[in-house]
Design a protein that fits this description.
The complex is a heterotrimer of chains A (253), B (237) and C (636).
Chain A: E1 5-14, E2 17-27, E3 32-36, H1 43-51, E4 58-63, E5 66-67, H2 73-78, E6 81-84, H3 96-107, H4 123-132, H5 148-159, E7 166-170, H6 178-195, E8 198-202, H7 206-212, E9 215-220, E10 223-228, H8 230-235, H9 237-244, H10 247-252
Chain B: E1 6-15, E2 18-28, E3 33-37, H1 44-52, E4 59-64, E5 67-68, H2 74-79, E6 82-85, H3 97-104, H4 117-123, H5 125-128, H6 140-152, E7 158-162, H7 170-185, E8 189-194, H8 197-203, E9 206-211, E10 214-220, H9 221-226, H10 228-235
Parallel strand pairs in B: 3-8, 3-9, 6-7, 7-8
Antiparallel strand pairs in B: 1-2, 1-4, 4-5, 9-10
Helix pairs in contact in B: 3-6
Chain C: H1 2-32, H2 39-57, H3 60-85, H4 95-117, E1 133-136, E2 139-142, H5 143-165, H6 167-184, H7 189-210, H8 212-215, H9 221-236, H10 241-261, H11 266-280, H12 309-331, H13 338-361, H14 372-389, H15 393-415, H16 420-440, H17 442-445, E3 451-452, H18 463-486, H19 488-498, H20 500-504, H21 510-536, E4 538-539, H22 546-559, H23 566-582, H24 587-601, H25 606-617
Antiparallel strand pairs in C: 1-2, 3-4
Helix pairs in contact in C: 1-5, 1-6, 1-7, 1-9, 1-10, 2-3, 2-4, 2-7, 2-9, 3-7, 4-22, 4-24, 5-6, 9-10, 9-16, 10-11, 12-18, 13-18, 13-21, 13-22, 13-23, 14-15, 14-16, 14-21, 15-16, 15-21, 18-19, 18-21, 19-21, 22-23, 23-24
The chains are: A alpha/beta (253), B alpha/beta (237), C mainly alpha (636).
């Protein structure tokens, strides 16, 4: 099986400080890969390089065999990479449906049309996506008044608008109540299975990580220190010491 | 009965047209650690900001040690003995660690523990090694320690800790638990907001559950631990 | 060689005033997040007060320097007065609204200065002890230039010590990063703001006073320095004092060397240097990307809804009145006179101009301080075709939007690389360059004398015919702009404003989209310029001035930037006010005072007032408490 995403010796330094150093990994279709590690370990930098917000110093990022390192975010999205943010990023002056319509309009490269009103375009597809994430009834509400957990679902619908092969989720359950966390991750599991999307996500909630990730990578001070199945990572002494601490027991409880 | 150190009564706060806090009341007694539990958007942060004067309330009163501080400006409230640690840390990234502490410095007060940078470095040894480091170049965990230390420089009597465990690695969360316990031992009264029940249980005496800007439940941590129904409704699976 | 050294030193000395003004601007912006438009006025006041103070104090060399410092302190206190009486009352209003207030202050200061010191330029006093010249390799250099050369580094060192070695300085730097957090830590922001206003204003005043022996004082100093100061701030990097120092020297040298090489194109040179710097360092030499302030949280904008019945009805009513006005003019010429028709034509032209600016400012989130470049650019494009090709109106008229669009393509390419206040300052700098080309290139543009004889074709030459033509173009223009906002284009534009992060993550090339929007906006501003040039029969460089740009900005902000009807209301109100006051002496003072009063009374803008008032009357106000809830009420 060829990997969907292959990252090879990715590195980035800020003013002499090595944020990410020689990180290599691969994501396969239909796989949920978790990236964990202490704060400042380089997770966000890694993510931002994959999505084009930051240009890597060196290293390759191969998406379906094509090097996307250094491309701007909007180009990377067009190659089939969706993204959700740690702090939800939606369009606050639009309704829920319009947010998804916007992504669909962009997907069809119709964003520069000047004449026909946007209101009537892509409504059916937008409603289908909203239905998929359980937000169909709330399509007409403004994004600014949604509950946080619902916003996260809208983000997921937006991220799915271009039929991505790869989904990057930065702390998908941060700021959510436990029940909402479980529901959102269950939804992500289903969608991944349905569409054979590869998912790379970061997360601080170890319950979520150990329950949903197929594989886990641990980053510390910019370097990959462990990689493997949840069981293997949980058993890793170094990971316990640097990162997991006493919460491993809590997570198992 | 003695006057509570902090008492908020019937707070109402709006954000644009949205009613964020509705009739929210709580008390914090001297030396207590009390947690506001609830999910994102429940109104915990808005409660903290309303108490601190950072958000304008439409109705309600806040008393600090019996004195009415309703509607006062943040710096007046801070000087009256209230310390505020925001959820997103908001350290001054271009300033050094020492300069961050300097911004927080306020005169000593008789009724609260007095802090100096040296005392704080004893509590947060990591910070001691990076006094002249630009705060923006520190890790998230170090920044979290700095934001607490910076607030302590104001020698507060009451500490508002907004989501102190959010986004922190589990080992740092353990340190945070130890820090809060130490501050309680110093005699500080602490109001924290949390989503993480493990964390809240480890440090708090009592809990309020906030949902949609209202208090839905009030009780000791033991009572909450015993009340499976409440936990099921608001907090757990 | 001697000539080179003397030119170099002259350049360095001319950088002093520029550095003082720009660093003050930068410091005030850093903490208050207010772009103090009135900063140029403070510079001018420094010069005038300096002249008076030197005379009053007398007493030779010591007296001179005491007087200069007194002038700086006096201007600092004026800045403090502005802060306490005006800005302090509106800190909770949206940030842009404070711009309007400082613009009102400019107008007030202009007339107060005129009233106190008269319209004659004042010759600056000479500095006792530095009245001679030194000879360097056979070239003479005024001694006072050496004094000016020493001032900048001294002030720079003083500021560095103040900001890095004092508690006050540390607090100011912290407040520049997050002023709300500083206040939550027990620091009284008010004193910090007042102190910063004092420092920044005093620096501007010092700049004005210290250049007196070289430049004197005149009433055009305010706008002349502010454009250059904005260029220095943009090139140096917003908020960086060291950057302002470097940039002031760079621009100072450029001006003195430039004058020798290209006597008529010094401003163009400035533009080229700025362009080069911004291509390689978008945030200036020593600047950093703008930090989204932790200041006032603005309530999110409501989703765009198609016009409701009320709005359609109101629009139809206004259109009917507009169409019937000439009929009324013919029927009752006494009541509806020629002047009224002219006024309504003017109003409509500025409505279109303001709507064009609103197109990028509201939905696009791009605040342009220099939109007169496109209004005047359109007017000049048409007028030049008439002048050199004797083009008829039917052709020249279309050259206006096309010319303006070309200009917008050129300027926009640079501007959209930046955001927020950097973007705004760059647009102002570009507009000023466009103005200077028109002003300096007399052979082609007629310079100050303008271009005359741009009259409509015969069929449109009667007042009423031109009136209907204007109604037609303006209404069509407004509807076209509105249509685009409801089309995918407008949605994409708003997406880029609401969340650049998310927009990029759904494949939107924001910069390119903004560039297109900027061009469209420029074209419509150019169309307004064409209507203007044919209604007046002439065009002068004033149509490209900063003041004209600020007019448009004021119209949009006064009308309310979040409302599509805002620019219409704002342009109508302001054009009418202008007309009302224009006959009076000291009309600037009246207009400025009115603007300040409006800002204090209506922090949401005129249309904002209408929205809430109307909404409440019609029972349309958002059901406040219900918006966050969706059932699930559980008793505790």
């Amino acid at each position: 099986m060829t990997a969907l995403l292959e990252v090879d010796r990715l590195s980035k330094a800020f003013g002499g400080v090595r944020a990410v150093q020689d990180v290599s990994f691969a994501v396969n279709p239909g796989e949920l890969l978790a990236l964990i590690g202490p704060n400042g370990a380089g997770k966000t930098t890694c993510f931002n390089m994959l999505m084009g917000q930051i240009r890597p110093d060196h290293g390759a990022i191969l998406l379906k065999g094509r090097d996307i390192a250094g491309l701007p975010p909007h180009r990377i999205w067009r190659l089939g990479v969706g993204r959700t943010f740690q702090i939800t990023a939606t369009f606050s002056s639009m309704t829920v449906r319009e947010n998804v319509q916007m992504a669909l309009i962009s997907h069809r490269n119709a964003g520069r049309r000047l004449w026909r009103p946007a209101a009537g375009t892509e409504t059916a597809q937008a409603d289908a996506l909203l239905d998929r994430v359980g937000m169909a009834e709330q399509g007409d509400r403004a994004c600014s008044v949604l509950a946080y957990g619902d916003l996260k679902r809208v983000e997921l619908a937006i991220a799915l608008a271009n039929d991505p092969d790869l989904l990057l989720m930065d702390e998908p359950t941060a700021g959510m109540a436990p029940r909402e966390r479980i529901e959102l991750m269950r939804l992500a599991d289903e969608i991944v299975a349905e569409r054979k999307i590869g998912v790379l996500f970061t997360e601080h909630d170890m319950d979520v990580v150990f329950a949903h990730a197929h594989r886990i990578m641990v980053l510390n001070r910019g370097e990959l220190i462990a990689e493997g199945t949840p069981e293997a990572v949980r058993a890793n002494e170094q990971v316990r010491e640097i990162y997991l601490g006493s919460s491993v027991e809590a997570g198992q409880a | 009965m003695t006057t509570p150190v902090l008492e908020a009564r019937d707070l109402h706060t709006y954000y644009g047209g949205a009613h964020i806090l509705a009739d929210l009341s709580f008390v914090l007694n001297d030396g207590e650690v009390v947690v506001l539990l609830g999910r994102n958007g429940a109104g915990k942060t808005t409660t903290m900001k309303s108490v601190m004067g950072l958000v304008r309330m439409r109705a309600g009163t806040v008393h600090l040690e019996g004195a009415d501080i309703t509607g006062r400006e943040p710096h007046v409230i801070a000087r009256a003995g209230m310390g505020y640690v925001p959820e997103d840390r908001r350290i001054f990234g271009d300033l050094t660690v020492m300069e961050n502490l300097e911004v927080g410095r306020q005169p000593e007060r008789a009724d609260a523990p007095a802090w100096t940078p040296e005392r704080l470095f004893g509590m947060f040894p990591n910070l001691a090694e990076m006094r002249t480091r630009q705060a923006g170049r520190m890790s998230g965990g170090e920044q979290q320690m700095l934001t607490v230390a910076r607030t302590l420089m104001g020698n507060p009597k009451v500490l508002l800790l907004d989501e102190p465990s959010e986004g922190l690695a589990p080992v740092i969360v353990d340190q945070m638990v130890a820090t809060i316990q130490a501050l309680k031992a110093e005699g500080l009264s602490i109001l924290l907001s949390e989503q993480n029940l493990h964390f809240a249980t480890a440090v708090s005496d009592r809990a309020y559950i906030v949902e949609k800007g209202r208090i839905r439940y009030e009780g000791t941590m033991d009572a909450l631990a015993a009340d499976a129904e409440v936990r099921n409704t608001y907090l757990t699976v | 060689m001697g000539e080179f050294i003397v030119t170099l030193l002259t350049g360095l000395s001319s950088a002093a005033a520029l550095f003082l003004v720009a660093s003050g601007l930068s410091i005030i912006f850093g903490v208050t997040r207010i772009v103090n438009f009135a900063h140029g006025s403070f510079y001018m006041l420094g010069a005038y007060i300096g002249v008076t103070a030197v005379t009053a104090v007398g007493g030779g060399a010591v007296g001179f320097w005491v007087a200069i410092l007194l002038a700086a302190v006096a201007v600092g206190l004026i800045g403090v007065a502005m802060e306490i009486l005006l800005l302090r009352r509106i800190y909770r209003a949206p940030e842009l609204f404070q711009l309007i207030a400082t613009f009102g202050v400019i107008l007030v200061i202009q007339d107060v200065t005129l009233w106190i010191w008269g319209s004659e330029d004042l010759v600056g006093p000479r500095a006792p002890g530095f009245t001679g010249a030194v000879t360097i390799l056979g070239q003479r250099l005024p001694e006072y230039d050496l004094v000016l050369i020493a001032v900048s580094p001294l002030v720079l060192a003083g500021l560095w010590l103040l900001f890095n070695r004092t508690r006050w300085g540390t607090l100011v730097r912290a407040a520049t990063l997050d002023r709300q957090m500083v206040s939550a830590l027990g620091v009284n922001q008010r004193w910090l703001f007042t102190g910063v206003l004092f420092l920044g204003s005093a620096l501007a005043g010092l700049g004005g006073a210290i250049q007196l022996p070289k430049g004197g004082a005149d009433l055009l100093m305010d706008f002349n320095i502010i454009a250059a100061a904005f260029v220095v701030v943009v090139v140096g990097g917003m908020g960086s004092i060291g950057g302002a120092f470097l940039a002031a020297i760079l621009i100072g040298l450029l001006q003195t060397f430039g004058i020798q090489i290209f006597p008529n194109s010094t401003l163009i040179l400035m533009f080229l240097v700025m362009a080069v710097v911004l291509i390689f360092r978008p945030w200036g030499l020593l600047g950093k990307p703008e930090i989204p302030g932790h200041g006032v949280v603005e309530a999110p904008e409501a989703p765009l809804r198609p016009a409701g019945r009320g709005l359609r009805l109101a629009g139809a009513l206004v259109l009917a009145v507009l169409l019937l006005l000439p009929v009324a003019h013919l029927a009752v010429p006494a009541a509806v006179d020629d002047f009224l028709l002219v006024l309504v034509i003017d109003i409509m032209i500025f409505v279109l101009f303001a709507a064009a600016l609103h197109f990028i400012m509201g939905p696009g989130g791009m605040v342009s301080f220099g939109h007169a470049a496109f209004f005047g650019g359109g007017a000049y494009a048409a007028a030049l075709l008439v002048k050199f090709a004797e083009a008829p109106m039917e052709i020249a008229f279309w050259a206006a939007p096309a010319g303006a669009a070309l200009l917008a393509i050129l300027f926009g390419w640079f501007c959209v690389r930046l955001t927020g206040v950097y973007f705004a300052m760059l647009t102002l700098a570009f507009a000023q360059i466009a103005w200077s080309i028109v002003f300096q290139w007399g052979e082609v543009t007629g310079g100050d004398d303008g271009i005359l004889g741009t009259w409509p074709s015969d069929w449109a030459s009667s007042r009423i015919a031109y009136y209907y033509m204007t109604v037609g173009f303006v209404v069509a223009g407004l509807l076209a702009l509105r249509r685009m906002l409801f089309a995918p284009f407008g949605y994409t534009l708003r997406a880029g404003r609401d969340s650049p992060l998310r927009a990029a993550a759904i494949g939107i090339d924001i910069k390119r989209h903004q560039w297109i929007a900027f061009t469209i906006s420029g074209a419509f501003a150019g169309l307004a310029g064409a209507l203007f040039v044919y209604s007046k029969g002439s065009v002068f460089p004033t149509e490209m001035e900063i003041a004209r740009s600020f007019d448009a900005l004021l119209m949009v902000l006064l009308g309310g930037v979040h409302s599509l009807t805002g620019p219409i209301v704002g342009a109508t109100a302001l054009t009418w006010l202008n007309d009302l006051f224009s006959e009076l002496s000291y009309w600037r003072f009246l207009l400025g005072a009115t603007i300040i009063a409006l800002v204090l009374l209506l922090p949401d803008g005129l249309a904002g007032l209408g929205d809430t008032w109307l909404a409440r009357r019609l029972g349309l106000a958002a059901p406040a408490s219900g918006s966050g809830a969706n059932g699930q009420e559980t008793p505790a």
